[in-house]
Amino acid sequence: MDGRERLKEARRVVVKVGTSTLAHRTGKLNLYRIEQLVREIVDIANAGKEVVFVSSGAQAAGMGRLGLRQKPPEIPKRQVIAAIGQGVLMHTYEKIFAEYGQVVGQVLLTKENAVRHNQYHHSREALQAMLAMGIIPVVNENDAVSVDEIKIGDNDNLAAIVATLVDADALIILSDIEGLYTANPATHPEAELIHEIGDITPEVEQLAGGAGSSIGTGGMYTKIEAAKIATSAGVTMAIAKGSRPHVLRELLTGEVVGTVFAAKEAHLKVRKSWLAFGKDLRGDISVDAGCARAMRERGSSLLAAGITACDGTFAAGSTVRVLSPQGQEIARGIVNYDNETLKRIMGHQTEEFPQLLQGDIKDEVIHRDNMVLMV
Ligand code: GLU
Fold first, then answer.
1. I need a surface site. Which of 4, 107, 289, 346 has the fewest CB within 10 A?
2. Any idea of the CA torsion for 72, 74, 77, 78, to the nearest 10 degrees?
């Protein structure tokens, strides 16, 4: 099944809408657009799909309510803005969803809730219970209490994590751009929209650049990060323009709109997706071509012999990335050795470990059970 077919078949869908779609340039809420989106979301729910709605816009709504044109630099003030804005946003949603007879419930997540295993489990249970009752969860990051290093930071990544949390079939990211282009359409008029992406290669990552709009947090870069999380957890992802009328219905009936990232065949086990995306990445391990192939094609454990370099400072038990000779991320996993020890054993056969190491010896640098393939 290709990506479009999967969207057509999707039963559980996470819809993420960015600030640039929900707010005017003035920073105030775009009520016309919000009404249109809410109506579409209720319509797909009425058609039998389960929907989780990840909405940004709390900061914008808070600034609008306070009459501010610019985000204050002080973190506590930003927290205040989020606290005010989240209420404004939810009030608006509650009112409009209710007009269509749809019950919604607010879920504010922090990185901790989405990541630490027992809390992750509770977040998952809550979201699934709401879906089972026909309620649409309206999700955002809890910006009033989470700052900087404890933040996920952008709702593209948050939405992808939520999609893996609820085992969604599809993640739709609505933004102020039609999808991923062959070049930046703002500066290259000849740029073409890419309709379907199979593998997220380094070239695809490069297309995403680093740009973001002035009122939202994400750019294409965070959307590609989200696509990696989603597709390797078996979730098909689409990026499309939020202002396009009927955009959700079009995507979910398989029309060629936006950019679709095909999901990887197998759904990951829940624990694995938590492991891959929930933890801080502490380092990079580069491997040779043979090792990359064995991992990719057979899901082999990572052995020291195939390792060519190791970057970063990490302890045994940290989560690290595994990179191909071309620098493409092929896997993430929990490493059995710290970076110093790894430098001693890399390039060596497992049989040589007793001469190189003392104490606890593990054959694998990353065991396949503790590893998630990203390609
Ligand atoms: N959580 C932020 C808000 O509601 C949005 C983050 C983002 O734009 O990705 O304002």
1. 289
2. 70
DSSP state at residue 29: B
C-alpha dihedral sign at 112, 114, 115, 120:
positive
Q: Is beta strand 236-241 parallel, antiparallel or unpaired with respect to 259-261?
A: antiparallel
Whether the CB of 20 sits within 6 Å of ligand 1: no
Strand-by-strand arrangement of the 307-311 sheet:
307-311, 281-287, 319-323, 329-334, 371-373
DSSP class of residue 366 equals B
| pTM, rounded to two decimals | 0.77
Residue ID of nearest Cα to ligand 1 atom 8: 217
Token duo for residue 225? 């990060």
Q: Is residue 276 very low, low, confident or very high in pLDDT (cuts 50, 70, 90)? A: low
Question: How far is it, in rounded angstroms, from Cα 18 to Cα 173?
Answer: 8
What Å distances lie between residue 134 and 29, 52, 103, 131, 281, CA to CA? 27, 11, 8, 5, 36
Residue of 93, 232, 91 whose CA lies nearest to 160? 232
Q: What would you report as the CA-atom Rg of the chain, rounded to the nearest whole angstrom?
A: 22
Is 283's C-beta closer than 6 angstroms to any atom of ligand 1?
no
Task: Using the atom order of ligand 1, give the atom closest to the CA of residue 154.
Answer: 9
Q: What Cα–Cα distance (Å) separates residue 356 from each residue in 50, 221, 288, 362?
A: 54, 41, 21, 12
Measured CA to CA, the distance from residue 71 to residue 213 in angstroms comes to 14
Strand partners, 212: 219
What local confidence, expressed as pLDDT, does residue 186 receive? 80
Per-residue pLDDT at 147 exceeds 80: no
